[in-house]
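S.,

Sequence below, as promised.
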Amino acid sequence: MTATFETYIGRPAYIDIDALNRAMHEPPSVTAVHLRVDPLSATRLYRELKQMPQVSAVNLRSAAVTTFNETMAKTILIYVGFFIVFSVTLACGVTYNAARIALTERARELATMRVLGFSRREVEYILIGEIGLLTFVALPLGAGIGWLLARWLVRAFETELYRVPFVVRPSTPGWAILGGFLATLASVLLVRRRLDRLDLIAVLKTGNDL
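The prediction came back faster than expected:
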């Protein structure tokens, strides 16, 4: 009987030990034993195994898994923390720059609307509404591109030594969208302060930047 199984470390293959001995023309031998141990009897078992000269090493699966998880958690936390800080900084910079450029390009039009009688809130609604619409379109699109990029990276890092499963939790795009929204909100508030200090007379006279 043959079957396949999913594994993420190495590419192991298993065979019945009797069939392996026949194929290798070797007498029956045991190189490793996997035991399911009663926790109440574990201490006594380990003590007896330590006294057996035929046993070269004893590995505890729970200890190995715990150590592996702790090591990977620390490593991933450092990398993920770095990427989060970098992405938030980049998002704030891009959104603020886009909002500032929009304000600079439309300063004359916005000042003209103020002179014609539009309230400050109405003028803010025009500028912020445009930024909000672009953000509304960009955030889902960016989440989709990020999903495709993550899938490509998982395939690119696949080697014979290990493989990383592609798992994206439903909350992950939500956190990404929330971060982009907060970055846009912070940028809008900064640009709003510049809009409140708009010099109507100077802008109407020169039409230059703020």
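The chain has seven helices and no strands.

Coffee later?
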